[in-house]
């Protein structure tokens, strides 16, 4: 055994080595807009909150597409992470054709721009262009299939199914890793508050019996948080959950008031504004404290015209950590795009 | 989830020792889902027959794995959507055009409109169209005594343009009418009964003449009486019905059409009834309105999973 004092003082690794190791294992990435304001890393839990039709599922799909695309394929730069994603659908309204169309759009856009560049640069004859185009479309199919296979999906119709999915997810993830050699980077839960009312109304046992745990809202969420925590430790991944606010958006007056405040106003006003959430929070505190980031999206009343088509404008705002920007975005065929 | 005792014949490791071990921790049935597996294994290790108990835990875990739907990847979902989820025409050209063909199997479409805006007519027309064109059976759940066989017969008569003799026409009519099953329910618990029976029937028989369309006219008259007040059960029941309908739609490839009425909203503009919580149930929401005096209805999209809202079309109700 080496001289204990010197060995102890020397330490295991230097700060530079540790930083290099951590940034390789748990790298920081930027999600596509409107979640792009802050870099997110594995282990973060992002909650996307908003009233019922506010493009939350589309934002999830966009984030999924970013993750499942490769960074480069056949010379075309796609800029993806080439990892798998898991989508737990508690809302049970997911439309696979929506994902498929958005993915095809993305691939064709990026492929098409590459094609155009090639043609401009090399000045090819028509015949050559056709064969090259055909081969590009064939590659698209292969790429498309590869990406679609990286998207894993399960739907749960009640809390039992959700809990059993979480409990058995570890084995499935292990299998995926062994079979496909690609690990999960993103876990998406569509509408974490889907069974809120049903769980709140069910309480199986009278409160007398102390030994037995009953399936109530509190215990379900405690188990959910516990299981996700354990999963994230073994399979590091980013968690994004959507939540529908059911009591409507209060504090429209607050928003209007904020518009008239100049940016240089003192911190006191900013602090009181941030403490009041623009909706009523009804999730149990165990979930609220599990969430590390929160984004609020909602439709605004404005309609803008892009490409000669009317699009309704959505607003997104970071509540946790509280940033003072209000991003505006629109929904098009190719996805969710920022609008200035 | 069944009590542990009933799992014994199939899973040998879940014997009486294991059951006693579980009872000592307070696990009788589905409470297993609430327990931390590592803690459970830790407790098991302390007992003398730890290997056997751990086997029991593994087997119980495999039972739990069977409780949820299997994981699918994107290509499997696409296959399923292309092969099983067909589009059913409603018989109303305007609605078909708006929806890109018609009602989609696996989706819940909601038609919202004030009274006498033509919701029941659309339902009856959809029932007759599916029963005739697609040769599938239709289940019509009628909550307000609005089902009219005569109307359905007239829609069927209208659709067939070829000159038939009376005998053949009568035969077609008989076939179509026997494909439409009408249930009258007047409260939500009877509705649950009908839906559970339907689910059981669909799971046990997988033959021809499968149910393709399920119509609930109108779902709001069943749910509105139980909402309101300070009870939580109204919302819970509403969501349970919604999820049961979605489950039937997806697992058994049925298109579901429900109708809802309107209530006054902010500024006097009518909004759909059943509130915010119901908004997350239907895939597609259409708003129907009829000009007074004539038969022209206009329909617009309030919400669609892949189309922008606001698109509108109009059509005429014949007869």
Automatic annotation (TrEMBL), chain A:
Domain RecA family profile as annotated: residue spans: 23-246
Top-level division of the source organism's lineage: Eukaryota
GO biological process, one term: double-strand break repair via homologous recombination
MF (Gene Ontology): ATP binding; ATP-dependent DNA damage sensor activity; DNA binding
PROSITE patterns hit by this protein: RECA_2 (PS50162)
Entry's Gene Ontology cellular component terms: Rad51B-Rad51C-Rad51D-XRCC2 complex; replication fork
Gene3D superfamilies: P-loop containing nucleotide triphosphate hydrolases
Listed PANTHER family: DNA REPAIR PROTEIN XRCC2
Protein name: DNA repair protein XRCC2 homolog isoform X1
Gene name of the encoded protein: LOC107427161
From TrEMBL, chain B:
Ranges that cross the membrane: none
Major localization listed first in the record, in broad terms: nucleus
Start and end residues of each RecA family profile domain: 84-262
Keyword ATP-binding: yes
Annotated compartments: Nucleus
Keywords: ATP-binding, DNA damage, DNA recombination, DNA repair, DNA-binding, Nucleotide-binding, Nucleus
Family affiliation: Belongs to the RecA family. RAD51 subfamily.
Protein name (database record): DNA repair protein RAD51 homolog 4 isoform X2
Gene designation per UniProt: LOC107411217
């Amino acid at each position: 055994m080496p001289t204990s004092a010197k060995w102890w003082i020397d330490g295991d690794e230097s700060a530079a080595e540790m930083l290099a190791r951590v940034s390789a294992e748990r790298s920081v990435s930027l999600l596509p807009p409107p979640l792009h304001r802050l870099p997110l890393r594995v282990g973060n839990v992002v909650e996307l909150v908003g009233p019922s039709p506010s493009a939350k599922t589309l934002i999830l799909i966009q984030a999924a597409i970013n993750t499942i695309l490769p960074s480069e394929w056949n010379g075309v730069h796609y800029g993806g992470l080439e990892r798998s994603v898991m989508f737990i659908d508690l809302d049970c309204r997911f439309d696979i054709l929506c994902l498929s169309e958005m993915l095809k759009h993305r691939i064709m856009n990026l492929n098409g721009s590459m094609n155009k560049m090639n043609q401009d640069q090399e000045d090819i004859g028509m015949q050559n262009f056709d064969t090259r185009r055909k081969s590009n479309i064939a590659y698209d199919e292969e790429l498309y299939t590869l990406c679609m296979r990286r998207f894993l999906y399960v739907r749960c119709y009640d809390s039992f199914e959700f809990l059993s999915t979480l409990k058995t997810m570890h084995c499935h993830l292990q299998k995926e890793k062994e079979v496909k050699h690609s690990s999960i980077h993103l876990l998406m839960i569509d509408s974490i508050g889907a069974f809120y009312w049903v769980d709140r109304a069910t309480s199986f046992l009278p409160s007398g019996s102390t030994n037995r745990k009953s399936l109530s809202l509190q215990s379900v969420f405690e188990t959910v948080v516990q299981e996700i925590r354990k999963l994230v430790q073994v399979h590091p991944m980013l968690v994004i959950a959507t939540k529908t606010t059911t009591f409507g958006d209060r504090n429209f007056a607050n928003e209007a008031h904020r518009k008239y405040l100049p940016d240089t106003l003192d911190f006191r006003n900013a602090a009181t504004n941030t403490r009041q959430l623009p909706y009523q929070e009804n999730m149990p505190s165990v979930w609220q404290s599990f969430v590390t980031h929160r984004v609020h999206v909602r439709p605004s009343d404005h309609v803008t015209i892009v490409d000669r088509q009317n699009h309704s404008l959505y607003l997104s705002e970071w509540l946790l950590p509280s940033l003072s920007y209000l991003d505006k975005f629109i929904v098009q065929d190719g996805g969710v795009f920022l609008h200035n | 989830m069944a009590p542990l005792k009933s799992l014994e014949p199939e899973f040998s490791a879940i014997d009486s020792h294991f059951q006693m071990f579980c009872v000592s921790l307070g696990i009788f049935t589905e409470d297993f889902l609430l327990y931390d597996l590592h803690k459970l294994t830790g407790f098991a290790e302390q007992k003398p027959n730890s290997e056997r108990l751990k086997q029991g835990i593994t087997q119980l875990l495999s039972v739990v794995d069977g409780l949820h739907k299997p994981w699918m990847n994107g290509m499997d979902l696409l296959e399923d959507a292309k092969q099983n989820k067909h589009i059913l025409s409603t018989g109303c050209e305007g609605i078909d055009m708006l929806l890109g063909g018609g009602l989609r199997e696996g989706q819940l479409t909601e038609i919202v409109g004030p009274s006498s805006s033509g919701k029941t007519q659309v339902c009856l027309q959809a029932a007759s169209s599916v029963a005739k064109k697609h040769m599938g059976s239709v289940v019509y759940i009628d909550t307000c005594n609005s089902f009219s066989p005569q109307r359905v017969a007239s829609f069927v008569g209208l659709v067939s343009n070829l000159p038939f003799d009376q005998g053949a026409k009568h035969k077609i009519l008989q076939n179509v009418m026997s494909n439409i099953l009408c249930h009258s329910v007047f409260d939500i618990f009877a509705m649950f009964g009908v839906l559970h029976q339907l689910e059981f029937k669909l799971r046990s028989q997988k033959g021809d003449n499968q149910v393709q369309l399920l119509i609930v006219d109108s779902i709001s008259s069943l749910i509105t009486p139980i909402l309101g007040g300070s009870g939580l059960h109204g919302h819970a029941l509403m969501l349970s019905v919604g999820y049961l309908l979605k489950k039937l739609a997806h697992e058994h490839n049925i298109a579901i059409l429900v109708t809802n009425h309107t209530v006054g909203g902010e500024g006097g503009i009518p909004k759909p009834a059943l509130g915010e919580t119901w908004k997350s149930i239907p895939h597609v929401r259409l708003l129907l309105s009829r000009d007074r005096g004539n038969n022209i209805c206009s329909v617009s999209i309030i919400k669609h999973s892949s189309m922008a809202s606001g698109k509108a079309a109009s059509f005429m109700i014949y007869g």
